[in-house]
Write a structure and sequence with these properties.
The chain has 441 residues and is an alpha+beta fold. Helices cover 25% and strands 30% of the residues. Helix 6 crosses helix 7 and helix 6 runs antiparallel to helix 9. It is globular and about 65 Å long. The protein binds zinc ion (ZN).
Length: 441
Amino acid sequence: MSDSYFPLHGDDGYAVTAYDLELAYVPHTGRLAGRATVHAVARRDLIALRLDLGRFKLHKVLVDGRRPAAWRHRADKLHITPSAVLPAGTVFAVEVRYAGVPHPVRTREWGELGWEQLAEGALVASQPHGAPSWFPCNDRPDDKAVYRIAVTAPTPYAVVANGTLTSRTAGASTTTWVYEEPAPMATYLATVQIGPYERVELAHAGPVPQSAAVPPALLGRFAHDFARQPLMMDLFTDLFGPYPFDRYAVVVVDEELDVPVEAQGLSVFGANHVDGRRGSERLVAHELAHQWFGNSLTVADWRHIWLNEGFAKYAEWLWSQERGGPSAAALAARSRSRLALLPQDLRIADPGAARMFDDRVYERGALTLHALRCELGTIAFTALLREWAQRHRHGVVTTEGFTALAAHHASRSLDGLFGAWLYEPALPELPGLPERPPPFI
Ligand SMILES: [Zn+2]
């Protein structure tokens, strides 16, 4: 089955186990040259297979080191016919050599996605389907794989990608940065950030290493605006369970971004999100929460997007209360009042591709969680969140999976609650909290 919102992306005939990307980038021309090796397992007998890849010039396509019987690259699809059928269960590798100036994936709703050239360097923000703008992939959120990403760029530039920097080798005028991400990752969360950044470690970061890459001129503001991120990490670890990856990095690009962007183990903010007054602190919390909800637990299909955005939005409210701002209950009441003024024509459990990032999905997704917390009580609600995050760590999730698990934490049926909040467009009333919340939530 293909993704219900982007059926033209991805191929369910195989599962990718690892991507090995070797990239060279020339910032002043914008040219990217790549060698990608996609390690995969056939899920059925494969006569042919497809990879998603944007407009590049392809120099070579190999399957297990041999030329395939045929390949053609058209309309952002690389169709490959191997020289022999790959029987179900076969482990195989496709190598693609490609080059060109990456073209972002253009969308009506969300502008350009994927690889974007900056005045100095590049950023990648692919959600939901921009990954083929920079590497050949099985572009569906449910096919997660490990990554090795090697990027060669001119020496003054810093390169940040997902995972751990395992080597950095300087040549005459270029440096090769190698990152390894050992936790399975969806294609849309793979990223490379290239720019004249200063790399810094966050002080007092505790058990999870937290670093940043920031334009030097913004370092002072950054230090102030992100100073409480380690406290957020502590709060979310208490509420959601252990941080799911080895480290967390933040990149601030020297341009304005409409919204920050999450990637696995990493978040990207615009210069406009660093104002020296913590004006975007709720977004710092939002992006960090995505490491659990979105990145470790990834939607099996894009229609379940509220499992990412509703949870990240609710995390903003929990952080507000923790720092002494308005409580989650107060923010929920405000949010419901705002939503009541908007059209109620959206089903949160399946908002449709065009409206998957509609504010109402975020707000009402968070309200659904608040209503659930009112029903279960804070202690059972927190136990549910922790079990949800632990049980599906590094996996894929569905709305039905969440509601089924929630039922195990409830003393009476939740069908009415979930039916009203997730599956019907009309906005339900918010119940009151059944007890005084403990101080940590
Ligand atoms: Zn988000």
